[in-house]
Amino acid sequence: MLQFFKYVFATLAGILVFFILSFFLLVGIGSALSSDEKVVVEDKSVLKLDLNKPIAEVGVENPLSELGGPFSGNEDVTGLKDIKDALKIAQKDDKIKGIYLKVENPQAGWATLEEIRNQLLEFKKSKKFVVAYGESFSEKGYYLASLSDKIYLNPAGGMEWNGMSAEYSFYKGTFDKLNIKPEIFRVGSFKSAIEPFIRENMSDSSKKQSAELIGAIYGNFLTNISKSRGIEVPVLKGFADSLTIDNPKAALAHKLVTHLGYWDEFENSIKKELSIEDKKNVSYIGVDKYIKSDVTPEDGDYNNRVAVIVAEGEINSGEGSDESIGSDDFIKELKKARDNDKIKAIVLRINSPGGSALASDVMWREIQVTSKKKPIIASMSDVAASGGYYMAMGCDKIVAQPNTITGSIGIFGLIFNVKDFMNNKLGVTFDAVKTSEHADWPTATRDMTEFEKSMIQKNVNEGYANFTSKAAAGRKMPVEKLRSLAQGRVWSGTEAKANGLVDVLGGIDDAIVIAAKAAKLDEGDYRVRYFPEKKKPFEELLGKMMGDSEDKVLDRNLGELSSYVKMYKKLMNMGGMQTRLPYELIIR
């Protein structure tokens, strides 16, 4: 027995020592990561923009992502704000002589790319060089590379130039096989978010809006590349229609790229630009490190601030996450900005396809309350549609990029009747007692009566009337005209500006300037603050140790099967009334 207790105490002591050592190790790592890293920018440096990674409004830095173990699979997310800040600073930094674009396949939406491209064009006014190299270029990658002074394409590589498409997945056949019956309630002939559940292909109205949407985005794409490369739009379009650009030689022959070459040839060209010896290495510095360098003091009056509140992801009630907008969290941030006397104006940066109708309305109300106290301007990113537009319409002005996806003003309700699935496929049956005829309504385990269905449709109709009347008031247009633009119809930023759903075409910087002017702040007399703020590396490390993004865990453990599990999760979250973009709109 004595020997037993000896082993027990030895084990407990070992565990205790392990936790103590782990604690001090964690504190040590945290201290190292939390300390102000001194980054020195060498003379004749080149700012390296590696955009072949996820790009979000605010970045996420995981300094231990290469260590594996609990940190594997958590790659860095580059912040749009960091990219733009780095370009603005580099434009005036004498130590930065140019930019190297690594942009084979950026993981970002078209409006985000527009923001980056416009900032690169501004950078070029400094007369510093911008060069790009790629083993291959997707159309998104080439959209950024096209403004470069030199574009190198690997002679064994490839280039995508075949136009754009929008493809949807349809699940009616799956539900039929599983005996699951979706009960759909909607308003709006263009509300195609529910089509994947009840059809095997796109409706005529869905095809119409999708074709016009990608046509507008494609037109902006071709126009801007035409300006950069000096090739007429019809010629560029012809290249896609005929698949002319089928290899690197064709890309060079038709002047889409300036050189075919390997990495060493590309780097030698940079050395010539920098006038450095062949034996010397080029001093590249990435965005994350560069923004930590103390190259310029912060301008503006500390007591005059413009707050940028980032709202990114699907909309739901309660708390949010890195991938969603929680109405409770959003309201807290908005109240803090509203009550802070140093904050004179607010920009609401929206990147959301929508979600819960209730949460959207709750946030709209808080935006309205805020607008009575200080200016609040909406800045639309890649997507600000349905619930995302619901948020924007409460602001004083709406700013969108030409290729922002917006509109989708409509509401739908969705309930999955799983009675036959549970009975026929799993052998599960249901029975119940109730005090009133409709006590279990709405339900997914029995067929609803026509009266019960009519009551849900009534709620959807009322929600749509509420949405459109508030949108009409926000846009200062007759509700009849607003409803002619609604019906769940999706618009590009250019189209939305033409029909009055958007006030100004531009990016986040334009929205900040508008907000500052509305608060009677002069240029240079204010500072800009983003909320929520970017997490420090130690905070991110703790997040990785305490838990992981559920989606990333699924990706790591299930591989390709994870997409089906995510789809199931989204279906379960779509119960009740939704203000949501057409389902899984992906433009390639």
TrEMBL record:
<protein>
    <submittedName>
        <fullName>Signal peptide peptidase SppA</fullName>
    </submittedName>
</protein>
<dbReference type="InterPro" id="IPR004635">
    <property type="entry name" value="Pept_S49_SppA"/>
</dbReference>
<keyword id="KW-0378">Hydrolase</keyword>
<dbReference type="InterPro" id="IPR047272">
    <property type="entry name" value="S49_SppA_C"/>
</dbReference>
<dbReference type="InterPro" id="IPR002142">
    <property type="entry name" value="Peptidase_S49"/>
</dbReference>
<dbReference type="InterPro" id="IPR004634">
    <property type="entry name" value="Pept_S49_pIV"/>
</dbReference>
<dbReference type="Pfam" id="PF01343">
    <property type="entry name" value="Peptidase_S49"/>
</dbReference>
<keyword id="KW-0720">Serine protease</keyword>
<dbReference type="InterPro" id="IPR029045">
    <property type="entry name" value="ClpP/crotonase-like_dom_sf"/>
</dbReference>
<feature type="domain" description="Peptidase S49">
    <location>
        <begin position="123"/>
        <end position="274"/>
    </location>
</feature>
<comment type="similarity">
    <text>Belongs to the peptidase S49 family.</text>
</comment>
<feature type="domain" description="Peptidase S49">
    <location>
        <begin position="371"/>
        <end position="521"/>
    </location>
</feature>
<dbReference type="InterPro" id="IPR047217">
    <property type="entry name" value="S49_SppA_67K_type_N"/>
</dbReference>
<keyword id="KW-0645">Protease</keyword>
<keyword id="KW-0472">Membrane</keyword>
